[in-house]
Amino acid sequence: MRVDGHLSHLANLDLNMLVALRELTRERNVTRAARRLGVTQPAASAALSRLRRHFGDELLVRRKSGYVLTPLAVQLAEQVEAVCVAAERLFATSTHFDAATSDREFTLLMADYTIAVVGEQLSRLVRVAMPQAGLHVRLVREALALDYAETIRSIDGIVAPPIGRFRAPDVHSAELFRDRWVCVVSAENRALDTDTLSLDDLARLPWVAPYHPGQGFPSAAPIARQLTLLGIQPRVAVRVESYLAVPYFVVGTDRIALLQERVASKYADQFALRVLDCPVEPEPIIEALWWHESYEDDAAHACLRQLLAQAAAKL
C-alpha cells in the first residue's frame, strides 16, 4: 500500500515537540519551560537540542540579559501557538461539555484597553463557571490586518471594533459594549487654561498617540481615524503601542491625547488628569466579539461567549 509522503512525515514526528517548542518560545528560559512542561530541566534541554537539530537553528541564543529568540524562532512562536490551540481544540471536541470539569484553554485577542474594561469581570466569571479552564489573552497588534483571516480561524475570538475587514461570511459577531472618545490633559497643563477645548487647541498642543504610524504611513488605528474625522493633523510628540501607556506620557506635560472615556475616568485621579469633551463629537466606540463560524455550535465556546456578554453587561 502506498503511503502519502506528507502523512508519512507527520507520522514520524514526535508531536510532543510542539508543546516543548511553545513553552520554550514563550518562556525563553529552559528552567521555566521545564516547570511548565512538568519535566526535569535536563529533559527540557534535550527537547531544545532536538528542536535545534530539526530546524537547523539555535532558536534560543544566550545574551547577557538572558536568552533571546532567533529570527526563525520568532516566526515559529507565532505558528506554534496557532497549531497548539488548533490541536487542543481538536482533541477537546466532544458531544458532551461540562463547564465544571472542562480544562480547555481559550485564546482571546484584545487591546489592553478592553482588558482594563472587562478583564477583571471576565476573569471572575470564568473562574466561577469554568474553574478548570484556562485563558490565554493576547494583545492586538497593528499587524493583525495582515494575517486576520488566518488568525480568526485559530483562536477563540477577537474583541475589536467593527472594522471592515472583520465583516466576512464565515465570521460571526456580537456587540459587547459601547464607549466614547474624550480628550485628556494633565491637571498641571499651563498651556490650557479652560475646560472647553477648541479645534485650535487640538491643532496647537503636542499629542500622545497610541498606535499612530510614522509620517507618510497609512494607519487603520482608531486614533488616526478620529483625528482625521476631526480635521486635525496632529503634532505627535509621543507614539506608544498601548492605550494604557497614554496617561504616563500626558501627566505633568502640556500634551493632549484622545482616550476611551471608560479608561480615562478610571485613571484620571491616579494620574491627575483632566478629562474633557472633544470640541466635535467623534465616532462612538463599539466593541464586539468576533469568532469564526466553525466555533458557532461548540458548547464550550458558547459558554465563553455568554460569559463575555455577562462581563460586558456588568459595566
UniProtKB/TrEMBL annotation:
First and last residue of the signal peptide: none
Domain HTH lysR-type: 13-70
Protein name according to UniProt: LysR family transcriptional regulator
Family the UniProt entry places it in: Belongs to the LysR transcriptional regulatory family.
The keyword Transcription regulation appears for this protein: yes
Pfam families assigned: HTH_1, LysR_substrate
Domain of life: Bacteria
Keyword set, alphabetical order: DNA-binding, Transcription, Transcription regulation
